[in-house]
């Protein structure tokens, strides 16, 4: 036997191990804890999504059962909410698009279409309605703080609404 060969086991022994947890993917479905990590220069920086526990709503469905669009959507929701938690009452979240001259979009809605499309609904600073349809493999956005429109009494918090929607969504889809 070479050093790369697994030691042979009697058939019944392998079966009993298989029944407990057969693969790391099976373990991941039981307790989905995706790899995430972040370090900040300022130790007093508020915790970011990589440093916070995954909300229960995101654990209802195994990672392996989620489309790339759904999983990207859920994590982006966490980033948007976290970003909004640090804004003042005169600011709203917006997205700048890296690698293009598309400008900045005030985020007013977000969705996904499995298996691989994310959609962003919003408006530009001048009020022009915008929508971005993006493949998950091209996802690359920058969250930005924009001043809320002067005529609007309070800043809108789309991240908080998106998280509430995740928490109320039917886990069966």
From TrEMBL:
Residues 26-43 have a biased composition (Basic and acidic residues). Residues 1-25 have a biased composition (Polar residues). Residues 1-63 are annotated as: Disordered. This is Uncharacterized protein. It comes from Aquimixticola soesokkakensis. The lineage of its organism: Bacteria, Pseudomonadati, Pseudomonadota, Alphaproteobacteria, Rhodobacterales.
């Amino acid at each position: 036997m070479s050093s790369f060969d697994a030691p042979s086991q009697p058939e019944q022994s392998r079966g009993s191990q298989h029944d407990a947890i057969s693969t790391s993917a099976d373990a991941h479905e039981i307790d989905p804890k995706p790899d995430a990590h972040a370090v900040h220069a300022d130790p007093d920086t508020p915790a970011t999504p990589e440093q916070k526990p995954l909300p229960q709503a995101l654990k209802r469905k195994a990672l392996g059962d989620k489309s790339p669009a759904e999983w990207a959507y859920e994590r982006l929701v966490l980033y948007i909410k976290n970003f909004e938690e640090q804004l003042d009452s005169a600011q709203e979240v917006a997205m700048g698009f890296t690698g293009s001259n598309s400008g900045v979009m005030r985020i007013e809605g977000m969705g996904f279409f499995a298996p691989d499309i994310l959609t962003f609904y919003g408006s530009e600073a001048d009020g022009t309605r915008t929508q971005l349809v993006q493949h998950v493999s091209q996802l690359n956005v920058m969250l930005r703080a924009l001043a809320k429109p002067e005529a609007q009494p309070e800043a809108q918090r789309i991240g908080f609404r998106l998280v509430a929607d995740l928490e109320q969504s039917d886990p069966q889809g």
